[in-house]
Specification:
Layout lengths: L2 H22 L2 H10 L8 H21 L5 H15 L4 H37 L1 E5 L4 H12 L1 H12 L6 H4 L7 E5 L14 H15 L3 H8 L8 H10 L4 H17 L5 H12 L3 E5 L5 E5 L12 H15 L14 H19 L4 H11 L5 H4 L19 H7 L7 H18 L4 H6 L4 H21 L3 H8 L6 H15 L4 H15 L7 H14 L4 H17 L9 E7 L4 E7 L5 H11 L1 H9 L4 H16 L3
Antiparallel strand pairs: 1-2, 3-4, 5-6
Helix pairs in contact: 3-4, 3-29, 4-5, 4-6, 4-29, 5-6, 6-7, 6-9, 9-10, 9-11, 11-12, 11-13, 12-13, 12-14, 13-14, 13-15, 14-15, 15-16, 18-19, 21-22, 21-23, 22-23, 23-24, 23-25, 24-25, 25-26, 27-28, 27-29, 28-29
């Protein structure tokens, strides 16, 4: 029997059965049964047909992914297909997760090899390295699998933990995604408490991702085996956990403190790191044997907790004092990560906290500070060292950083030096909302630098206007000549979003203006496709027919734009001078295909599916198809 015939038969049965029951029941019973009848009990044959269609689509895509050219895409698509199918075809999904894992291992191994080669080349040529790290595909697959099946997640995690160490020496620093810029370490390096073993770091990174997904219980289960020592990933996990489950986080932190007190390897930097949980949850400050500081931050708006129990705080200060007051070893036997100078700096940073919360220890710590003073460079222990107060003492609201920069002009001897100072003054003026930004920009003599800085300033202002929902300010910037066409398109679509509800006519005018900007972008550029996606996404709420038309343009443009993936929408602005590089890069969700295809699939599944199939590129076709599937399969 064909599918339409079977569906008709089911529909006939469902229509007939209620009438048979009503014919045999007395009137009172009939009324009672009718009152209890719920629409949810009826089978929505159209919805079931849609689900059957997209399940078939996802299965076909998962099979096709096995032959994709990119191992990265093979892993991602099969893992996402498994995630989409989990509720309906669990065993099939589990098999897809395993196939995705195999592809992820191959992709990561290849990426590790390339990174190691590039690192060696840079170290050989300049003695340091700066590398844009590839994503960890195993972590991506593991994250999705662990959300669905803890046992499968543990299996994959065990494979990561047991992986051979061949080549790990070269890639050990690359445990998280992002830019890495480090000086080559010398022989006999001291133990660094900021670093965690690779397996520990990967497990904690997964646990943090599970926390972000809202799966707190599973995040704790995955993290617990890795919470054996004090390091930045472990403290970050506890800091992120605390707003969601303060009791669980505090218990694990107390265990950290107790172990640190008994561990002979604990040193001043251990104490400094432990202080972060109570006083600077998103900021970690450590010190080197030369008195230099190292600050690491993972979040801006993450304030110190206001409900720390006095017993927990007292336990920290007892442990901190016991470690900081240990006998100072001779220089040739000192294996602490801080050295004597760093030891001095940690005490100097924490002493005001001791004075406030544990004053009975302050006198002993001041005596220890005096013993360490001769080994600490004067430049480090000076009152202007921000590392001693960063995160602990609010910055002086009366401090004028702009004027501090301008004061350096008296010592500038060349045009380049003056230009560099004015760049600093511009950046400080932006932070302080000083109206003299344009004045300082115009004082820069290097015309290329001036033009680059003006574009940077306008882009930063545009982002601020979008965050503040200041439509008029955003429009002024969108119509300036300092932004690129892709930046202007993004800005116009964001402003149109603000007008969609109350002024739809004006919103459409802005989207027409954005389409004019799109035409200024090279036809072969992925940015042209992203800009069209942004317009179509905003237009979907205002004029669905035109949105469909633009999606057809998107498919044609994507097929001409090599490198368009459908999910890599970002805006990046870079300011580079001889003395510094300042890069701002932000993800733009409206540049990605998933949003518009999800909207269109809910209106016309067949038409959206046909458009998705017309993408020649493997990645955009997969992104669009999976977005369609999620729109139909996910429960709202």
């Amino acid at each position: 029997m064909s599918l339409p015939t079977r569906l008709s038969a089911v529909a006939l049965c469902l229509v007939s059965l209620p009438f048979l029951s009503l014919a045999q029941a007395p009137p009172a019973q009939t009324q009672k049964m009718t009152a209890k009848k719920k629409p949810a009990d009826e089978v929505d044959l159209l919805a079931e047909s849609r689900r059957t269609t997209v399940i078939s689509l996802v299965n076909s895509l998962a099979d096709e992914a096995r032959s994709f050219h990119s191992q990265t895409l093979r892993a991602r698509v099969q893992a996402r297909a498994a995630d989409a199918l989990w509720e309906t075809e669990t065993e099939r999904a589990r098999a897809l997760f395993r196939r995705a894992w195999e592809a992820a291992v191959a992709a990561d191994d290849e990426n590790d090899r390339r990174v190691a080669e590039e690192r060696k080349r840079q170290e050989r040529e300049r003695g340091s390295f700066s590398i844009q790290l590839p994503p960890s595909l195993r972590t991506e697959v593991l994250r999705l699998a662990a959300k669905r099946d803890r046992a499968l997640g543990e299996e994959f995690l065990a494979e990561m933990d047991a992986a051979k160490k061949t080549g790990e020496t070269a890639t050990a620093p690359f445990d998280s995604d992002g830019d890495v810029d480090r000086q080559t370490s010398g022989a006999g390096r001291r133990n660094d408490p900021t670093e965690a073993p690779a397996a520990v770091s990967k497990r904690l990174r997964l646990a943090i991702q599970l926390l972000e997904d809202g799966d707190v219980e599973r995040a704790i289960q995955f993290a617990d085996p890795a919470l054996g020592g004090v390091n930045m990933p472990a403290l970050e996990f506890l800091a992120r956990l605390r707003p969601k489950n303060a009791k669980a986080a505090d218990e694990r932190y107390l265990a950290f403190v107790a172990r640190a007190s008994l561990d002979p390897a604990s040193d001043p930097n251990t104490v400094s790191l432990l202080s972060s949980y109570i006083f600077t949850p998103a900021l970690y400050v450590t010190f080197s044997p030369t008195g230099g500081s190292n600050s690491n931050s993972w979040g801006r708006a993450f304030p110190a907790p206001s409900d720390i129990a006095p017993q927990l705080r007292a336990a920290y200060f007892r442990t901190a004092a016991s470690i900081l007051l240990r006998p100072i070893p001779p220089p040739d036997q000192d294996r602490t990560s801080s050295g004597r100078a760093g030891w001095h700096m940690v005490i100097a940073r924490l002493l005001p906290l001791f004075d406030q919360y544990a004053p009975d220890r302050s006198a002993q710590l001041r005596a220890q500070l005096a013993l360490l003073l001769p080994d600490t460079p004067e430049r480090s222990r000076g009152p202007n060292n921000n590392a001693l107060t960063r995160g602990l003492v609010p910055e002086d609201p009366n401090r004028d950083r702009v004027q501090e920069s301008l004061n350096r002009l008296n010592n500038a001897k060349t045009a380049d030096e003056r230009d560099s100072i004015y760049v600093d003054a511009v950046l400080d003026a932006i932070r302080q909302k000083d109206p003299r930004v344009e004045e300082f920009v115009n004082k820069i003599e290097n015309l290329d630098l001036r033009r680059q800085l003006r574009s940077y300033v306008d882009y930063e202002a545009a982002e601020r206007a979008v965050r503040d929902k200041d439509a008029e300010a955003a429009l002024r910037l969108a119509r300036s000549l300092n932004l690129t066409p892709i930046q202007r398109t993004w800005l116009l679509t964001e402003v149109a979003k603000l007008f969609t509800k109350n002024e739809p006519g004006r919103a459409i005018e802005l989207l027409d203006e954005a389409l004019a900007e799109v035409k200024r972008i090279d036809q072969a550029s992925p940015d042209r496709v992203r800009a069209l996606v942004a317009v179509a996404t905003q237009l979907a709420e205002l004029d669905r027919a035109r949105s469909w038309e633009i999606v057809r343009e998107i498919v044609e443009a994507a097929n001409d734009a090599e490198g368009f993936t459908g999910e890599d929408g970002r805006l990046t602005i870079r300011l580079q001078t001889k003395n510094m590089v300042n890069t701002s890069s932000n993800s733009v969700q409206s540049f990605d295909l998933a949003g518009i295809f999800a909207v269109l699939a809910r209106e016309d599944l067949n038409r959206a599916t046909t458009l998705a199939r017309d993408f020649k590129g493997e990645s955009p076709r997969a992104v669009a198809t999976l977005a369609i599937a999620r729109a139909v399969l996910e429960k709202n």
